[in-house]
Amino acid sequence: MQRILIFILYILFFSSCMNDRTLQNNEVSSNEFASGFSIEENSEIVKLKVFNPWEKAQNVKVEYFLVPKEISVPDSLQNKNIIRTPIQRIICMSTSHLGFIEALNESQSVVGISGASYVSNLELLQNVETGKVVDVGYGQNLNYEVILNQHPDVVMLYGVGSEVTTHVKKLEELGIPVVMNAEYLEETPLGKAEWIKFVGALYQKESEAQQFFNEIKEDYLSLKEKVKDKQNKPRVLVGSPYKDSWWIPGGNSYLANMIKDAGGDYIGKDNDSHESYVISFENALTYGNEADVWINMGLLSSRKDIIATDQRFENFNVLKEGRLFNNNNRMSENGGNDFWESGTVYPNLILRDLISVFYSGTNHDELVYYKEVE
Length: 374
Prior knowledge:
Elements: H1 2-19, E1 27-29, E2 37-41, E3 46-51, E4 61-68, E5 82-85, E6 90-92, H2 96-103, E7 110-113, H3 122-130, E8 134-135, H4 144-149, E9 154-157, H5 164-173, E10 178-180, H6 189-193, H7 196-202, H8 206-227, E11 235-238, E12 241-242, E13 245-248, H9 254-261, E14 265-266, E15 277-279, H10 281-290, E16 293-295, H11 303-309, H12 317-321, E17 323-326, H13 347-359, E18 371-372
Parallel strand pairs: 4-5, 6-7, 6-9, 7-8, 9-10, 11-14, 11-16, 16-17
Antiparallel strand pairs: 1-2, 2-3, 3-4, 12-13, 13-15, 17-18
């Protein structure tokens, strides 16, 4: 009797191992710059992990299992987050996600977007006009019926705060697979760009994503190397007032690190946060008198507009004697800014722009995302 029991237990154990064969001997691909995700894969199933996918999140980890459509879902993955791949229909809640999808030549898979009118990609704008791509709303106005009608393979979300979990729960209740993309929280430009590997896995395009990232990385690091020993680095002011508040990037943020890599001396670098923070106009005035270059001033497009916004700008020394460049060179008719779309996946082009702004004199005809404010 005891031998029979042992034999039965052995059979059950062996069957379980066979059932989970696709999850054994996982190979973990290590990221070079990104800290917000990991990829574990074997010959069939891929496991994606996303870490702390919203601001101020701590010890939060979400797992997704990418199961090819031609195989059955293993019993061990019941009640897990399953995404069948390759995906063919996706809804994106941020235009920054579109840059990754375009780089993978999968723009035709986008069937919905939050804020569709702000898209920069011409192909997607045409699809919005013809109704192939629909606007699914935003925040509390997210239209779940529209989302259902698009039959997405996955909805790609991002979260500013933990309230995003409410949308995740609702979508899951409707049977719609969800994946969190936290690229915007990365502190380095290459960290953000490396999320193309994450997106590539959804399309079973891991090798294409890796090759694309390698090319971007090589160009970026080459540009960074050229200016690393520059002397007399220009002092850089960022931002402009919005509703009486002046937000500037923290010293460990994506943009602060981009400025540093471009050979600039970011005035707000002493604050070690990776998030933006508010400064007073008095502090901004001090910064404005110290700065050689002023960039990323939102909707302001001319020096006249800047002064019209607030007469106190007349006292900014950088406005009178410095160089002003805004990241609004590629805007759609409805106000979409490609800096935040394709620029997410092409940080090398942004870096090239900034190096030109900081060091190459007055000829800026070949700038991609920036243009001079006159």
